[in-house]
Amino acid sequence: MQTESDIGGRKGDFEPAAAQAYPALIRAATVLCWSRSDVDDVVQETMLSAFKSYDSFRGDCSFFTWAYKILVRAAHAANQKRARVIPSEYAMTQPQHLPPADRATILDEEAREVIDAIRSLPERQREIITLHLLDQLSYVEISSAMEVSLGTVKATIFQAKTSLRAALASKGIVRKAIHELS
Known about the structure:
Largest sheet: none
């Protein structure tokens, strides 16, 4: 049984790591979740789960990488719940097609198009490119977070960037957005 001082000590270590990872988790959840209303809930659930299991965090990867694994599971569960209430064209039978980004959440039209293009990618590409572009993790960190080989990460990022360039170019977004994917 943990004493109050054990919990306080663990909490002291957890809070700075969580505060640093929080913005990146919000960005990732914005892409992975189908609805803005789920983003905050998923990140909150992720933080709560991370806190409860913080003693199992070994430190062999960054706190964000470890918390991202929790976030992916939480986002997937939230999307499955929402699949029961969304139109059939976005049902879980077609996980590669997520609803468009919420207009109330993302005001910049070009940013919304980029998010929509990312959401149109197959699930693994979407997750890996989110870690690479939005959270700026290295290939090694992504490999650790996704529990896949480094070669898989490199190939998946290449495929995702190729698909994103084509999708964005077809919408007339060629300047900054495609340059960012280089």
